[in-house]
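Exercise 7. Predict the structure of DNA topoisomerase VI subunit B from Marine Group III euryarchaeote CG-Epi4.
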Amino acid sequence: MGQMTFNFETEEKVPEKKQDVEIKEEKKTEKKKEEKNTTSTKKIEKKVKNKTAKPKKTKAHQMAKEQRDIPVSEFFEQNRHILGFDNPTHSLITAVKEGVDNSLDACEQAGILPDLIIKIGNLGKDELSISIEDNGPGIIEENVPNVFGRLLYGSRFGSGKQSRGQQGIGISAAIMYGQLTTGRSAVICTRISKDHLATKITMKLDTRNNRGNVERKEDFIWKDELEEPNEDGISPEKEHGTKVSFSIKGRYREARPSVLEYIKSTSIVNPHARIVFINPDEKKFTFDRAISKLPKLPTEGVKPHPHGVELGQVMRMAQHSSEHQMAKFLRKDFSSMGTKSINDVLKKSRITTIVRPQDLTRIEAKALIESFKSTSIRTPTSGILVPIGPKLIKMGLKQVLEEYRPDFYTLPISRTPSVFSGTPFLVEVGMVYGGNLPKDQPVQMLRFANRVPLLYQAGGCAITKAVQSINWRLYGLDQRGGKGTPSGPAIILIHVASTNIPFTSEAKEAVADIAEIKKEIVLGLRNNAKTLARHLKKQKKRAKVSEKFDLVQKVLPAIAEKTSTVVGKPVPNLDKVVAAIMDVVWIEENIEYDKEGINIEVQITNYRLRSANFKLRAEVPGHQINNAKPRPGKRVGNQVIWSVGLPTTEST
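Solution. The predicted structure, encoded as tokens:
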């Protein structure tokens, strides 16, 4: 049997190398981290498992349940003051304004000369009925609940076209306010042609769902109140138009600001419209049209102008552009961009023409805007905006302000279009002076935006601030300290026209204080004020001459008579002596306006030592001359011309 052998080894501690120690320590650390991560992961998994199994309700959950969409109509119902329905008088004017704006826009877009009938009735206890009727194209039956029962519904928002309405809020908000304060339904009558029956729809606004709910609908025969009855006393049917009737809690008053003032002002800047107004006392006011021609409307919307566009706006436009090259994008999506302007802009911004607009970066868009600012780009063409025009402004002022009999109208000014934030606008200014206008009161400011009178919030309006920034003492009006609203027998008319008027609020009662707009208003005012200053200078000179003339006429004959008595000789003819002293051609005119036309009488006396030969011109735009003394030689355009030849000291 073999022998089993056992070998024994003694364990001895061999010193470890430093590197091995570090590796072991590192492994221990990593192991601890792994254990820690595993523990954390298990804890998180446990929490997630617990959360999935039994979710614990928190305050955030409770708050989330309370959050909801706010219907726009419900918001404005609770904040109606934002829209101009803050007190009974203001609310009435706002309601009428919204209805009139809708009617005028509809008529003009359909190519129809507007005929409007506005009635306000007294229902008692501060309740008033309002009806606004027009001869526009009418509204199809299915669309009535949307047009009159939904807020932010319309065809003009973002259209790029100049119009009175912009937001799709106005008339629906007026009906909503009426429903809120009186609980009564609105009634809409409409007819789209003589081949269709007139329809009467009774409806209310559902503010929770922002829609109109029709309560009743019926066909009826609609008589035209503006047309004369036939021989049998029967009025003809209304062929087309819309009439909206509703009631509100409001207060009617004659003092300014008032509904009557609003309608008068509307008539001034809309001389193509005939407006009949019947107040709660059934007193009728008729504002006939001064011209039977519609204003020319732009055929298409206006694209943003490169000057003044914002960074985000450019990036959005580029992202949604249908073009795939930067040069084509600039040409198609912006206005006033020609080949030279495009090349200059791209060169300065270091963007190639073939870059896709959709790939435009924020840095590139910023460079593009900077290059817009430093590049000469033509201003928008006048055809994209609809000015009233100097001739029609003057006609409108004369038509409505006849009661004041002003003795001077400046030639109104229409400024060339300018731009703010990529939006085109223009400013028009006209002034009236003298007559029966009060001399010791602040001048009356007539503020307009897109042919709509602005009666409230004058202090916060760019128009008012522009007027107050001018030193009117330089132009002949009183003004304390050279600042603030001037005083004197004057009316200043300012109209701002734009595809997007920057109002200070949804009530659309004041123009925002934007530097570009204010600058244009100031330039227009100064230009007009110079004309007024020249007139006042001539008026003062004429007053001095008149005083001198009266003195000569009284003193010289008295001296001559006494001298003749003393020397015992007849009184001599003093005409040549008077002429030598005066040395003027004296002209006195008298112009009277009536509904049929005007009567002109001119007396001219030559107080000079030589004969006078000249042409006398009088501007009478758009009026029929009933009678003129002396008879004019000819009429050219708006001017009546006399050829005058007078020997010394003779009159005609």
